[in-house]
Structure formats: C-alpha cells, structure tokens
Hints:
By secondary structure, the protein is α/β, with parallel strands linked by helices. The chain has helices at 2-27, 31-51, 57-82, 85-109, 126-140, 165-175, 185-191, 196-209, 222-228, 232-245, 269-272, 286-295, 309-314, 320-338, 340-344, 346-351, 365-374, 381-394; strands at 154-158, 179-184, 213-218, 255-261, 277-280. The chain is 60% helix and 7% strand. It is globular and about 85 Å long.
Amino acid sequence: MDSDYLQIGGIKKIIADDIKAETAFEEKGKIGESVVLCNKIINNLKVLKKLDGSNSTYDSLIRSWEKRKEDISTSGSQGLKKTGKQTEKKGNTSGLIGQMEQEFRSRITSLISDSNVKWSEIGGLEEQKELIKEAVFFAMAQPDVDVKVPNLRNILLFGPPGTGKTTIAKAISSNIEATFFNVPISELISRYVGDSERIVSALYTIAREKAPSVVFLDEIESLLRQRGDGNKNAGAVLQQFLSQLDGFSTDDSFVMTVAATNVPWELDQAILSRFEKRVFIGLPDPETRRKIIGIHTTGKGYKVDSTMDNIVEQTDGFSGRDLFYLCSEAIRNMLRRTNKEIMEEKEKVIGGSSKVTYRVNPLSASDFDQALQKVKPAINEEMSKKYFRWKEEFANN
Ligand SMILES: Nc1ncnc2c1ncn2[C@@H]1O[C@H](COP(=O)(O)OP(=O)(O)O)[C@@H](O)[C@H]1O
Ligand SMILES: [Mg+2]
C-alpha cells in the first residue's frame, strides 16, 4: 500500500508535464502527438484512480480529457482553431489544474476541526496553563519599540498519552477564536506520500489565509521516525516543516504551531531548537485527579452521592483520559442500576415504537468501585521516570 502512495506523487508529476507538452503540441497544430498525449494522460488518470480510489475528482477529469481527445481528433488542427475550440481547450486545461489544486485545498481544509474547549474544562495543570497563556500572549502582542522578536509562536507539549495535550491545543485555539488545524503527522506522511511535502507548505499558506490559526502537529516525532524507516519523502517533509517552524515573525497573519509528543526523547536537536517553549504535561496528582473527576461528573450535570477520597486515592497513575473513562463507566453503572425496568423495554425503544425517558440519579461510591474494576491506568512507573528525566533536561516547567 505504501508503495502505491509513493507512486501517486510520481504519476501526478508525469501528468502535469504531459499536460504542458500536450498544450504545446496542440498549439503548434501537431494533432497526432496531441492525441497520443491525451491517451497517456487518460491512462495515467485511470491508474491514479485505482491507486487513490478515495478521490472522486478523477472520474470527471477522465471524462473531460476524453472529450478533449475527441474534439482534437474530429476537428483537426485547422478545425480547432477555426471553431474557436482553442480557447475552449485552454479553459479546459486550467480547469483541470484548477480541479487538482482544489482537491489539494480540500485535503487541507478537511484538517480544520472544531476546537470548542474552555480552559476551565481542563482540570489542574495550573502552572502549565499559565505558562501557555503567557506564551500565547507574547506570541500575539506586539513590542512597543522596534526590536527583533524571537519566534515565540511554537509550543511543544510533551507527556504521557491521555494527559490533555490535544485538549490544551484546542483550548489555545478556541480562546483566541482561531482556525484549528488538526494535523496527525504520521497519517499525513503515509497518506500523501509524494504530495505531503506540498501539503505542508499549502497547510501553512491556508493557515495564514485563515489567520488567526493554530496548527496542531500531533505525534511530531513521526517526522523523524518515518525518515529512520527509510521513507525518503519523510526527510523532505521534515525539512519543509522545519522551515515553516523557523517562523515568520515579520508576517502579520498570526499562525501558532502547537506540537505534541508522547515520546519526547525521540526528538532531535533540529526539531527541539524550533520550540522555544517546551511544556511538560504530566500525570495528575491527587488534587488534580479530584478536579478532573469533577469536570467529568458534576461538570456535566450529574450529582455525586459520596466523598471522592477513596477514588482519588485509588487512581494513582491514571491519566486524564483514564479518569474520563472511569467517570463514563460510573455513569453507565448508575444508569443501569437506576433504570432496570426501563432497560427491559429496550427492544421497543430501539425499534422506535415508543418514546421513553430514563432516570438520572446521583452517582454512588459503588458505581465508581465497579468502574475501577474495568478501567486500568495506561502507563507504568518506569515510563513516568523517563518523562521526568527528560523534563529536567529540556522543559520550561
Ligand atoms: N486535565 C484534564 N482535565 C479534564 N479532562 C482531561 C484532562 N486530561 C485529559 N482529559 C480527558 O482525556 C481525554 C483525552 O485527552 P487528550 O487531550 O486527547 O490527551 P493527549 O492528547 O495528551 O493524549 C480528553 O478528551 C479529556 O476528556
Ligand atoms: Mg492527543
């Protein structure tokens, strides 16, 4: 599959060259050569369609080139010029390039996602939130005298999975009402091999157009990993990212890059040097766990019928995500417990034959205890130590 993706970029280049050549032949009246190239273009579009089936633009491209071939072969060079098809053809060609361009842009815009998160929905991490808010402030504000400003627009968040890095990136974006580009790097590289280099510059172009923007680079270590795997394209993508990250503090349109990684020790100096701010997002301490449990229970309108002390104590090593799952599970337990009879009628409800409401009761200690049997923390102590060692050496907090 990967080699398919490698081919896609190559074939697109060939098509682009053929289109140029075809136009030149046609303008010189070399109909034979023109038709040969039309056939080649059509065949290559068919190959592309096979390799890159997710893409619906190919059918219409193929149709438009088949029509063009027919026009050329039936009217001959004189005919084309006399009937004014020359101009129609030009429109066609730019239409085709336009379509490819459009397809490209729509891939980027598909990365734009909703970022509706308030700072108050992130439990604990007070020091980190302050550090990040300050960084965003200095990134957005202008100095009052003419000084050279270092690039303050890149922030690196690192820490164990599920600790709120993605959520923080969204909060940054939503707080400044920015356009949020959610970019999973590994997916970008594997999906758009051949194109991914162009994707990166297009990404930042569109981010500037839609400024203020936050570009969220998730799993940034994949930039290096894929290169190590011998994926040549990844090297080019890395270079493209590095030059974008070098920044444009002269540029007025506000684009901030927030990168995240669960494995900071895989990053190299080239990447690290682009991130002035490196913020450790660690596992929650007991007080933070209490807050996160609150956000995912009372914060969502549920009542809690018992003290949380016991649960807080028993969730040492849980990430925010683990706690979120724990709360969801406890809520489900409460709903099952409270709605036994109604649940017996679930066939009816699912069948849509009757409208039923269910009861919501306070969450009890046993709802949480049962949930604890199911949800286990995702990382171990040794991993925790590894994060702390890296933090000591490289982080701002
Ligand atoms: N500090 C936190 N406060 C509240 N919820 C959190 C917190 N950290 C994580 N979560 C919950 O865990 C989920 C996953 O967090 P996420 O930001 O995707 O983690 P990461 O990107 O670090 O892997 C979030 O959707 C949220 O529900
Ligand atoms: Mg994440």
